[in-house]
């Protein structure tokens, strides 16, 4: 069982490598190529990044949330963009739905997109002045703020990107091993029975389960089996940001921002699930 756990953790972590490298290559490129064009692009379009973030987050993949977390930690994207990606993020779990559930699948994706767009807009525009910059973090609108690895400027773009990719890969591997051990000890059946017995409080509990990386497969299976309501699956899949949260905690050094992001992600996901429960 230990060997199987280690192998599963290794396979899940290896899937992240292309996305992690792409994210760090982009970050290093921005850091090494400060120019007026990049600065204008960041200052002119960065505040609306939640739109492509929400749309791209719906694509079945497992590394876009990690990329967004890295970009947020490097001040390339806004808090609203990060939350939009986290809330919309999907993965292969959505592809296991049977043909009879395709209509529900389309509904869930539509809800996740709407929640992500609304959250990104509200965070970056409506409530922007209510969130202190020390908590908000992220995009500053100036390329000079992107340089977060000044002590490594002597490294080339490729070498620096590879170094950071391997560093975060080891962290994700250890994180997946720890979570796999926890699930093995508790058991997926026990988690499923707990959610099924929670009644109207399903969104609250499913949102907590969704914070666990790679838990969306379990959440989707429970919904397909009729053990989880629409509100529960929406809450669980909205808070399910994949390994994005793990990468955020590792890449972003501001604990206050990280705690605020986790709380905000959970609150928005649960609120969306509770609203869906009223109409389901």
Describe the structure.
- By secondary structure, this protein is mainly α.
- Helices cover 70% and strands 0% of the residues.
- The chain contains 15 helices and no strands.
- α6 crosses α15.
- It is globular.
- The termini are far apart.
Layout of secondary structure:
Blueprint: H1 2-14, H2 17-32, H3 36-45, H4 50-57, H5 64-73, H6 79-88, H7 102-126, H8 133-136, H9 157-186, H10 188-196, H11 202-210, H12 216-224, H13 230-239, H14 244-251, H15 255-279
Helix pairs in contact: 1-9, 2-5, 2-9, 4-6, 4-7, 5-6, 5-14, 6-7, 6-15, 7-13, 9-14, 11-13, 11-15, 12-13, 13-15
In short:
With 280 residues, this protein is mainly α. Helix content is 70%, strand content 0%. It has 15 helices and no strands.
């Amino acid at each position: 069982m230990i060997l199987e756990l280690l192998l599963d953790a290794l396979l899940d972590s290896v899937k992240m490598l292309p996305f992690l490298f792409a994210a760090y290559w982009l970050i290093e490129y921005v850091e090494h190529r400060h120019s007026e064009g990049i600065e204008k692009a960041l200052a002119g379009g960065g505040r609306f990044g939640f739109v492509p973030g929400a749309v791209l987050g719906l694509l079945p993949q497992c590394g876009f949330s990690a990329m967004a977390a890295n970009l947020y930690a490097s001040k390339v994207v806004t808090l609203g963009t990060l939350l939009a990606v986290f809330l919309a993020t999907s993965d292969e779990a959505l592809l296991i739905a049977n043909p009879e559930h395709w209509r529900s699948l389309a509904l869930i994706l539509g809800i996740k997109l709407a929640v992500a767009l609304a959250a990104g807009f509200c965070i970056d525009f409506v409530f922007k002045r209510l969130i202190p910059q020390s908590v908000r973090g992220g995009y500053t609108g100036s390329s000079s703020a992107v340089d977060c690895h000044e002590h490594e400027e002597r490294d080339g773009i490729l070498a620096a990107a590879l170094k950071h990719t391997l560093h975060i890969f080891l962290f994700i591997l250890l994180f997946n091993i720890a979570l796999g051990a926890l699930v093995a000890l508790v058991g997926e059946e026990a988690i499923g029975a707990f959610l099924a017995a929670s009644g109207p409080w399903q969104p609250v509990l499913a949102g907590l389960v969704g914070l666990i990386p790679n838990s969306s497969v379990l959440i989707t299976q429970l919904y397909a089996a009729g053990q989880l309501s629409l509100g529960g699956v929406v809450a669980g899949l909205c808070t399910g940001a994949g390994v994005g949260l793990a990468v955020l905690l590792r890449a972003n050094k501001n604990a206050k921002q990280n705690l605020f992001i986790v709380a905000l992600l959970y609150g928005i996901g649960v609120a969306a699930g509770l609203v869906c429960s009223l109409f389901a």
